[in-house]
Structure formats: C-alpha cells, structure tokens
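Researcher: Re-running this chain for the archive, since the previous output was lost when a drive failed. Same request as before.
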Amino acid sequence: MRKLDCLAQEAALDESKLDRLIVENEQFILKCSSLIAHRYITKSDDEWSVALTAFAEAVSKYRFDKGSFLFFAETVIRRRLIDYQRNKGKYSKEIPVNPTAFGADEDEEELSGSVRKAVARLAVQDTESAVKMEIEAAGRVFRQYGFTFMDLSECSPRSKKTKSVCAKAVKYILGNPLLLSEMKTSKQLPLKIIEKNLNIPRKKLERHRKYIIAAAEILSGEYPCLSDYMQYIKEESDT
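Model: Regenerated structure tokens:
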C-alpha cells in the first residue's frame, strides 16, 4: 500500500536503490525547488544541488511513523532551501499567507481566536516564507484527516483546564511511537486508548479531536516555526 515509503526505507540501506529513487523522483525534486524558490529551477541551478542533497537526507532520516515519504522529503527540501536562501541574504519583506492554506477561499472571513492571533504574530517575523510554507505543508497533512487550519479556530481549547487535558493527550501520543504511527497511518485519533489510559472523558476528546491531532502532527513533524508557537503545550504537559 505504501510502496514508495517502503522503497525509501530500502534506499537508505542500498546506494543503488537510492540512485534509482532519485532518478525516478527528479521531477518531484525540481517541482519542490521551484515552488520554494518562487522561480523555475533547473539542474544547472545551485538550488538543484541543495534540493538533491536534502532529498538524500530525507531518505536517510525517513521512518514509517513520519507518514508519507514525499511529504517528509518535501519538508526537508523546503528547510534546506530556506537555510540556503537565508545564507545568501534573501529575506522577504512580507509574504502574506495564502488563505487556501487554511482551506478557505480568499474572500472568506479572517481567522478567529488563537489561530488568527498566532498567524498574525508569526507573519510579521523575519521568517515569513518559512512560516508560510510550514502552514501550507501542515494544511495538506490536516486535509488527509478531513479538516483544515480554519477548523482549529473552532475546536481549540479555551479554559486552562481544557488546555491541560488536551496537552496530556498530545504528550501521551508523542510519548508512544507506535500510537503516533497508527494515528498517522489510519488518519484517526486513537480515542479508546487515550480514554482508557488517561481517564479523559471521550466526549472531551471528540470535541477537541482536530486540535489534538494538529498539535501531535506539528510537534512530531518538521515544523520548527509552528512548534515554537505550540511550546506552551510541552510546558503544560510537563507540569
């Protein structure tokens, strides 16, 4: 079922398979590079070399519990190209986040609650391009679960007590690699297991299901900017 993911793991141990995997995914690497660089990239560009190295890095670091290999590889390529652009001094003045990253139309009303505030705060930092790309990448992952970034504004915990409960659920998932892998594979929150082991009411877990999944995906993935914003979850989890 996850043939490419299996091939990626095999390629990490076999140089000939790695070479073949790279050749078969050259267009994918070029496409990612072009999207991140905001211009057409060819094999004669420096970005191609950076992206190629990043793809090989993704192969060496990939594990099944990280979800789709291509999503993981795209994230690694994005981070390495952003590092490359920063080293060259290519900073953006301001890059607005595409509303479609949140699953919304451009004329849809602005985000509300904690999500809106988070995006607004992050958007004015000097890592706008990185944040934008992380939001778009996370948005694609969330859509596999059947929800969008927009939905988080409606299901985010409000009270301190509820935030603490959600943080415990997230910490439990992150602390159990097999459970995290199962969630990423099935695209379902393991409600029964969390309810049984943490004694959290099922209704509360269901009410904040999307938020818990989003937090677990962000904190376990390659989303350094978004993870910084969710640092409070780790802090609450440890209290």
